[in-house]
Amino acid sequence: MTATTSAVNHAVGSLVRARGREWVVLPESTPDFLVLRPLGGDADLVAGVFPEEVEPAVFPPPSADDRELGDAAGAGLLRTALRIGFRSSAGPFRSLAGIAVEPRQYQLVPLLMALRMDTVRLLIADDVGIGKTVEAALVAKELLEQGEARGLAVLCSPALAEQWQAELRDKFAVDAELVLPSTVTKLERGLPLGESLFEHHRYTVVSTDFIKSERRRDQFLRTCPDLVIVDEAHTCVPDTAGSGKRQRQLRYELLRRLAEDRQRHLILVTATPHSGKEESFRNLVGLLDPELETLDLEQPKGRERLARHFVQRRRRDIRRYLDQATPFPHDRYVRDVGYELSPAYRKLFEKVLAYARESVRDDEGNLRQRVRWWSALALLRSLASSPRAAAATLRTRANAAEAVTVEEADELGRAAVLDLADDEALEGLDATPGGDATDPGDPRNAERRRLLELAREADKLEGKADAKLATLVTEVKGLLADGYDPIVFCRYIHTAEYVAEHLAKALGNKAAVRAVTGTLPPAERVARIEELTAVAGRHVLVATDCLSEGVNLQEHFQAVVHYDLAWNPTRHEQREGRVDRFGQRHPDVRAVTIFGKDNRIDGLVLEVLIRKHREIRKATGVAVPVPDSGDNLVQALLEGLLLRGEEYVQEQLTFDDGLGLGEQRRLLHQEWQSAAERESKALTKYAQSGIKPEEVAREVAAVREALGSAADVAGFVREVLTALGAGVRRTDDGFSAPLTPLPVGLRHALETVTGGRGELICHELPPAPRGEAALVRTDPAVAAIAQYVLDAALDPSLPLRERPARRCGVMRTRAVSQRTTLLLVRYRFHLTLPGRVAERTQVAEEARVLAFRGGADAPEWLPKEETAALLAAEPAGNVLPEQVRQVAERAVAGLGQLQAALDARGEQLAVELRDVLRRVRTAAGAARRGLAVAAQPPADVLGVYVYLPVPQGGAL
């Protein structure tokens, strides 16, 4: 490019030269200070300079020197490099140029809802497995690209933090820092003096439970970015404003204070917005709009107000949405498989049950009895789980034994034993509970000796004496034989380790087996799963509920086995949702529930809760949590079993209200069914039928086409590496190439991406392992190759062998009947967009391929379809070197005559882009006042390629 000293022009979008390179003037510039972005470069690479430091720049025409001429392949490489390099599309969705995922049409609905709002306040509550993470991240990316938000914080559980970080990085090109107890010290150590962590790092993924503490909360609130996503938002609201557990109160206080800033964008994400507790739901939606806490949501006006902020769809609502089918698994096949205790196991069960009954009848006082009750329940539950969990429980002191009040004993006991809460994080809940409620002061305590003797008996039951384990082995072998890789879910860490150990022995070389439990930090859990799935052949993952929520496992597993019944049907739904979700390639998934026919506990839970949950879900299409009365029913059933025996439970048990077991169960199921039917009807109100995504889908498809497909990217990378002398080798899911033969500049750029390894390994489908590349346009390695191709084509000082794409070419082809010229043109646009406070101005770039027949003095411009077809034209013979030079010189010389037509085409494109923006905003119900698009001349001609016809008769 050459610089000129013509009249100074510092208009927004104009081209200037400074510091040895070319820049585009950005809207933030003032007469005294210019804000610049590198031409064709990353939007984040911004510089500020004084006007006297710059001079206007004029983009030079291609060279007609015969040494500079290329062929059709070179034209295609340059065009693709340009498309891949764009990060600031002028289309209606600025974010699409910077993401590596193609949103489904139904996933555009939350984005369109966000376009309606001055300040985005959204509750995305789609069903499990639909893609809420993509929907929330897409809205966030668009707000960041449009300049409506400057930073982002994602609040989630620590177990999901790395997954959020990977999703944002791999799919949305947002590189966020993890803020966890394990990372915060290192992060704070590197901060500049006086700068907070959230001021220094623009994007963060934060542990909700870490940041909610009073010591951390105030600093976060003071420096929190203007865009926040809250994952599993239902865990952050109490039943009423002044009640609930301490942890939930702290989370709610954090969110409430974040929401008080009415200029802060807030996106809440959950699959279970309504836990059956109306006050909890009101507190949740009240974070979006305080009036929703008190509005009558049964009335049309109340529902209309809520629908502005709330989107909730079932899988069946979007299995086919508009003209696009989403390939969810066709069905989920569910089986319950029972087993009977072996004689030795039944004998131990009777001994433990007898001890439990004796202990809970202790009359030493109310507190003492509650401690013993929870300890007894822990013993029975762990014994039903596995002999190893039972032995650990028998040897471990109960948490509830440390309580000083009945309330504290109940809270500690529930946390250790039950699954009835939908709202608590799953971290730490897989620890095996203690069942020893004795006084530790006397080491000769007879009761303690009795527990230790029972523990030794449990030790002897591992393996052959365990009928439950034998049943699992049979079921897993059957799944493997049918082509399924299962996940086996266990309640306790000890059980998971026991199951993994014995499964590995039983399966031998038929399948690889690994266990993932809460003993591993989240990063190591992911590494363990990657290690397992990297092994050739079939796989079995044994896990606790630390993996039952949020972690996506559908790429490698197709079945779930519930080795331990959860005492909460929602937990079963979460487990099965790890494989039954969008992206599952198997046509169906399987779920197997193993239960004890005669262990006194499983039958109660299965009949009262699990099967009823399935029945309601099948009938209504929604998964509704168990009503509060379900907690009381299960506890009463188990307490009756302990205190009086199974016969009493079945025949005589009555509750505080005088109702018998059958009546109480009937009322619970009736309440549950009614709640599900209400939710099912309500869902149709929140499918956002008023939004017209079909009017937007065309524009999205057009933008994606302009940016290039995955096949375009893969072909481009392969061609460039081959042209530069790097031998490309095919791999199972992509290809690889050594870096040594590459030009120094590109080699150094790729070595940075690969961590210094001497080979680039490319995968056709993201995500790619660390140090390797995914063949998507946002991957750093792909971006580096595209930038090199573009820079090299514009740098005549480089040797020809280091320039795979050329700006000028001539070829003969049967695709044309007369001389036809194809131009690769770059346009810059100045956009004025409505904003929540004031209008926003931005600069965007677009590339267009234009073609005409005849000469530059009287061009006949080709329609879009014929122009696109030229890119696929094949050579049909040689052209004499002298003719090539003459034709190229003539084409380049005629560019001056075409400039006015090219600039007029830019004005026409500006009108088309403005109409598209208006159309999309109209479909979303968003503001249009003040919207404008203006082309910034002159257009840059990057490439000139001439196609000559084959002479009649085939003579050349």
Protein described:
- This protein is an alpha/beta fold and 956 residues long.
- Helix content is 42%, strand content 16%.
- The chain folds into 7 domains: 1-58; 65-73 and 806-956, no CATH class; 103-323, 3-Layer(aba) Sandwich (Rossmann fold); 327-341 and 466-615, Rossmann fold; 343-459, no CATH class; 627-675; 695-802, no CATH class.
- The strands form 6 sheets. Strands 7, 27, 28, 29, 30, 31 and 32 form a 7-stranded mixed β-sheet that branches. The protein has a 7-stranded parallel β-sheet with strand order 10-11-9-12-13-8-14. Strands 1-6-2-3-4-5 form a 6-stranded antiparallel β-sheet, with no helix packed on it.
- Strand 15 (320-321) and strand 16 form a beta hairpin.
- Helix 1 (72-85) crosses helix 29 and helix 14 runs antiparallel to helix 15.
- The relative contact order is 0.11.
- Residues 1-8 and 647-659 have low confidence and may be disordered.
- InterPro entries: DEAD/DEAH_box_helicase_dom (IPR011545), DEXDc_RapA (IPR057342), Helicase_ATP-bd (IPR014001), Helicase_C-like (IPR001650), P-loop_NTPase (IPR027417), SNF2-like_sf (IPR038718), SNF2/RAD54-like_C (IPR049730).
- GO terms for molecular function: ATP binding; helicase activity; hydrolase activity; nucleic acid binding.
